[in-house]
Automatic annotation (TrEMBL):
Name by which UniProt lists this protein: Integral membrane protein MviN
InterPro entries (alphabetical): Lipid_II_flippase_MurJ/MviN, MurJ
Signal peptide start-end: none
Coiled-coil parts of chain: none
GO molecular function, one term: lipid-linked peptidoglycan transporter activity
Entry membrane topology: Multi-pass membrane protein
Amino acid sequence: MAGSVSRAGLWIASGTLTSRVLGLVRAMVLAYAIGSIGFGANAFANAGKVPNTVYTLIATGALTAVLVPQITKAALASDGGARYINKLITLALVGSGAIMVVAGVLTPPLIAWLGSSWDADQVQLATVFAFWLLPQILFYSLYTVLGEVLNARSLFGPYAWSPVLNNVLNIVGLIGFVVLFGADPDGLAGAGRWDLLGIALVAGSATLGVASQALILFAFWRRAGLTFRIDFGFRGIGLGTMGKVAGWTFLTVLLTQAVGLFNTRVMNLAGSGEAGLAAAELAGLIFVLPHSIITISLVTARFTRMSENVHAENFSAFTSDITSSARLVGFSMTFFTATMLVLALPLIRLIQPGATYGVVSTVSVVLIANLIGLIPFSLLFVLNRGFFALSDTRTPFFIAVGQSMLTIVAAIFCTTLPTEMITATLTGVISALFALQMAATFILLRRRVGILGGRGILGGIVQNVISAIVAALAGWGVLTLLGGIGPNALAMRSFGGAFLVCAIVTIAMAAVYGAVLLLMRNREAVSILGRLRGMLPGGR
């Protein structure tokens, strides 16, 4: 079982890594085409809030938290859960289609509210973008259901790899836009740049990618032993049970998304040339990369086993999975936090090689503010999956209420700041609040299941932080020897220079981080060293 979980985790991680690398390429092309600050960039970022908010409500709020446990139960039926799955997919199609229509009605007033500080041209452009992106609601919902069905049947690869197709199609559309309309890496262009063809290439290719990402999963249906048929007989699907479980999760996500929309409105107060929502999303894409590759891959592979252990009332195995996952996540995320803090400016230069030094510096401050919360954000993800496996979604809701209230207070305070400080300050506060949310989640989960290995988790985090501090000092020294981060430094002059510096500094920091952990006999570092030795010729 451990070997199969490890193989599944590696397969998921490889797919996620490939799609995330392509996602970074997509972000680079998008930032080169329309910038990360300014008129077009913020209009497009706000337009994406409509389908992304609804998708998050459906996928995270009503599906992901309950699908794997429910499908695991349904698999015990005589048909292996086939009828249940067909009903579930049909329900997802009908429900998301209806929600898409409602979202279409609400889109114009929502965009007008989010961009209340904008001029009419920017509001209009964002609204048109939003309508092109709305079909993503349907296809993202379908992708989530199909992917979770395949995951529950231990076919992890398609769900992890299909976003690769999404990114490729979107990149092609964006390249076409640059060829026809030129580049605007500093976001200086106004409304006159946008016509129907330009909007279609940017937003239409994004929606086409999402549609392909979802529909390609049907190609793996027979391998899962399934045949899809539309089935409107929703009675017997367990909507009552699912509603009780999903209801609290839906409320949790509804709350956080509502707060997120309010935060977006506050970020939109940023002026021309200042960091706003587009800059926050670009920084967030870099921030979430290690979380997506490592944390989500690891926990996705173990979540089915967690659910099975709960059904079997094997809580010692359940808590062991939580503890080991938390330690592995802490080990990796601490290193990435330290490395990306040291390399914040060169990383943004990698993503925006054509932007001025001023734009790179502006976005890098937002990235640093994000990185404060990487470790608690990833640990919170692990702990929440523990609650989901227990079919307890009520507790995370009340934890989220407290976090959301504090976030709203912070956002209101940020409206009193100079506009150039709003986005970075708000992002930093939200990152810090992840630590409080994570601590509260741990305490309440431990009360639910008993011993949770808190001392082991905390001990590992302490070792990781000490090693990360030493590695960061070493990394900063290497960065300084390579010319630092000034406007004319090697790391800031070009994509090639930034890539070279990032590679050298990362290797140096990894060596120091691992060495210090080995001196402290950290179990994760010792285990990784043992595996590396085993891969060598004659190794055991």
